[in-house]
């Protein structure tokens, strides 16, 4: 059976006509309650956990500062209630945010409102944040001070506390490495009973607290060592994959923000040459990765239907062709990279030069396009 690519193309043309009537809507809350903040169900950004089970809890609290966080932990400890932390988007796939227990008697502490800047020491290049601040908010706040967190995950919807708890990282072998926790120089945690523990640079326990999976307490505040803002220069180059493994090591040690994507079925590999430049370098490039943007739900449905037909008919040639079209489209369009300063045609070719804060992370998937 022939691949349904002509049908998909027709669907894309038809969808272009209805784009003006679309709107964006935020995702549903990850905690839903039947009565105020009581009798709740916890999920995640994916709307499901691998085991398909449901996490039920007795209540959720939304502290907005450390004193409210202390009160929540103290009261739950007095009731001998299990408690866990959940973030605004609860991005983790594992069910780490569920306090456990078949009777649903646990408490969820949301850091959704713990999302501010606590202190700025511009001279030392340090900033202290509440743990629930999203990476997007953190990057923007640091940029306003002329500072930058050098290495981060690629999606900016994750929270600072969540990144640390799960050992999140970027892609680099430079400096201390690309793990976010390597740039933590101070933390404040609220531990069982409501006691506040402050850890500073040089404290042995800080190493354990940086990547704790939330087992040592609720992270209240985090102090990061940042760098002066800089710019980045990047381009994507495609090569055949024969022998490419022999250059991976040298590529990683000479390209600070380098990345590569291997397409074994297509026999090619994409190297992203990505280095830093002085802030004075010209360029206003940005990164708004296509894969993280809000997507037309009907377009996604059509694409998945085409994939399902190819799978059901065991049409391997069609599957390979569809995959190649998708990759080619991503590469030719820049994959969301922008260098045309707000014009309708966002991408005019490589290289891309822009502030680190505008390139290091992206994601508009906090909103979803719907009909």
From TrEMBL:
FAD-binding PCMH-type domain segment(s): 53-229
Claim: Oxidoreductase is one of the keywords in the record: yes
Pfam families recorded: FAD_binding_4 (PF01565)
InterPro entries per the UniProt record, alphabetical: FAD-bd_PCMH (IPR016166), FAD-bd_PCMH-like_sf (IPR036318), FAD-bd_PCMH_sub2 (IPR016169), FAD-linked_Oxidoreductases_BP (IPR050432), GULO_Plant (IPR010030), Oxid_FAD_bind_N (IPR006094)
MF GO annotations: FAD binding; oxidoreductase activity
KW Oxidoreductase (keyword) present: yes
Gene3D superfamilies for the chain: 3.30.465.10
Leader sequence residues: 1-24
Keywords: Oxidoreductase, Signal
NCBIfam families named in the record: pln_FAD_oxido
Family: Belongs to the oxygen-dependent FAD-linked oxidoreductase family.
Protein name: Putative D-arabinono-1,4-lactone oxidase
Species for this entry: Anthurium amnicola
């Amino acid at each position: 059976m022939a691949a349904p690519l002509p049908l998909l193309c027709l669907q894309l043309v038809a969808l272009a006509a209805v784009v003006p009537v679309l709107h964006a809507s935020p995702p549903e809350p990850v905690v839903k309650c039947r009565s105020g903040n009581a009798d709740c169900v916890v999920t995640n950004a994916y709307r499901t956990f691998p085991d398909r089970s449901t996490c039920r809890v007795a209540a959720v609290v939304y502290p907005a500062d450390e004193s409210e966080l202390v009160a929540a932990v103290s009261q739950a400890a007095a009731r001998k209630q299990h408690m866990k932390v959940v973030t605004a988007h609860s991005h983790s796939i594992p069910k780490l945010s569920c306090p456990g227990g078949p009777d649903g008697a646990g408490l969820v502490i949301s850091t959704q409102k713990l999302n501010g800047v606590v202190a700025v020491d511009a001279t030392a290049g340090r900033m202290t944040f509440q743990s629930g601040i999203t990476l997007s908010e953190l990057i923007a706040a640091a940029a306003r001070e002329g500072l930058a967190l050098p290495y981060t995950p690629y999606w900016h919807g994750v929270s600072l506390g969540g990144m640390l708890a799960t050992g999140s990282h970027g892609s680099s072998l430079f400096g201390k490495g690309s793990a976010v926790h390597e740039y933590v120089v101070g933390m404040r945690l609220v531990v069982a009973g409501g006691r506040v523990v402050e850890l500073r640079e040089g404290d042995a326990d800080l190493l354990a607290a940086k990547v704790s999976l939330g087992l040592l307490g609720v992270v209240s505040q985090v102090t990061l060592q940042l760098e002066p803002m800089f710019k980045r220069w990047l381009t994507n180059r495609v090569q055949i994959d024969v022998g490419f493994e022999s250059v991976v090591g040298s590529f990683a040690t000479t390209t600070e923000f380098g990345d590569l994507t291997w397409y074994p079925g297509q026999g090619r590999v994409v190297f992203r040459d990505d280095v830093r430049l002085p802030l004075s370098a010209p360029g206003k490039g940005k990164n708004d990765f296509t894969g993280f943007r809000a997507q037309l739900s009907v377009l996604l449905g059509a694409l998945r239907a085409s994939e399902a037909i190819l799978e059901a008919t065991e049409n391997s040639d069609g599957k390979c062709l569809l995959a190649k079209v998708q990759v080619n489209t991503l590469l030719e369009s820049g994959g969301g990279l922008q260098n045309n300063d707000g014009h309708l045609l966002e991408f005019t070719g490589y290289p891309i030069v822009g502030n680190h804060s505008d390139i290091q992370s992206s994601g508009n998937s906090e909103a979803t396009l719907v009909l």
